[in-house]
Design brief:
Elements lengths: L24 H22 L7
Length: 53
C-alpha cells in the first residue's frame, strides 16, 4: 500500500482570500443579507427549479 501524501497549501483558500485580511463585520452582514434576498427572489420567481442543490 502506498502512504497518502499530505500537501500543504501555498496560497490561502477562497477566491479573494489574502493573508492577514479580515472583513468588516458590517460588510459581511450586508453581503450575507444580499445572498439571502437573491436566493429568496429566485425561489419566488423561478420556483424550486431555480435553486441548485
Amino acid at each position: 500500500m502506498s502512504t497518502p501524501q499530505h500537501r500543504t497549501r501555498t496560497a490561502p483558500s477562497g477566491a479573494t482570500a489574502t493573508t492577514g485580511r479580515r472583513r468588516n463585520p458590517l460588510t459581511t452582514t450586508v453581503r450575507n443579507v444580499g445572498i439571502a434576498l437573491d436566493t429568496a427572489a429566485r425561489v419566488i420567481l423561478l420556483g424550486r427549479d431555480g435553486v441548485r442543490y
